[in-house]
Specification:
Layout (H helix, E strand, L loop, with lengths): L1 E13 L4 E13 L3 E5 L6 H8 L7 E6 L2 E2 L8 E4 L11 H5 L1 H5 L4 H14 L15 H14 L4 E5 L7 H18 L3 E4 L3 H7 L2 E5 L6 E6 L2 H4 L3 H4 L3 H22 L1
Parallel strand pairs: 3-8, 3-9, 6-7, 7-8
Antiparallel strand pairs: 1-2, 1-4, 4-5, 9-10
Length: 260
Amino acid sequence: MEFLTVSNVHHTYFSKDTATEALQDIHLSINKGEFISFIGPSGCGKTTLLSIIAGLFPPTIGTVSIEGQSIFGNEHVSIGYMLQQDYLFPWKTIEENITLGLNILNKDKERGEEVTSRLLNAVGLPNIEKKYPKELSGGMRQRVALARTLAVDPTILLLDEPFSALDYQSKLKLEDLVSETLKKFGKTAILVTHDLGEAIAMSDRIFLFSPRPGKLHKTFEVPEEMRTLTPFEARAHPHYSTLFQMIWKELESLEHTKTT
């Protein structure tokens, strides 16, 4: 079932003297509960498209909708956005950080306490509600950021390089945690990443974009037997290397086209 639909999206950035075309003729659809990755050369418009899907601004041309509802300006569509930096408020406790969105939505305090406890347990950080961000490691802070993102029960989660600032061991652990948590809560997610291995290990499908102006160049299906594994386990599956080489060659050909 089509959950999110991007139709005929073009986007151009205008300045006083120039017009820069970032995206051209993007058509794609994502099913409910899918985990999708956007990959491609730097500057191909991945983050621009993610921002349009987030409803931060409308495309120059085209539409983006979730379950038939337009996203831009629609207060009934809740979007979760997780970034490279955790952006926790240092002067607020972990509980206050997690319930920030709920407070903005005027949800009652008791519900906020229950949601905080449930989500901290889900991300493996029980009983830290009264701690402050400075007391946590980088990986723990990103877990809190995930809990904060899930607290408002978003319709879809958008992940923009959320693991890139972490050391490799923490990154692998957090990949597993995010994948497990999103499956547990039945969430649909889109990941923007430069890490091809991460995209393969975490995704159901991978959308490869061509250089600017970004176009959808090719879609890769991750084999079903890999999708049932954790990201860490998926990296050891025989199909992982085959798919990595296939997508790598496509990326190389795009980079070659870009420079010739």
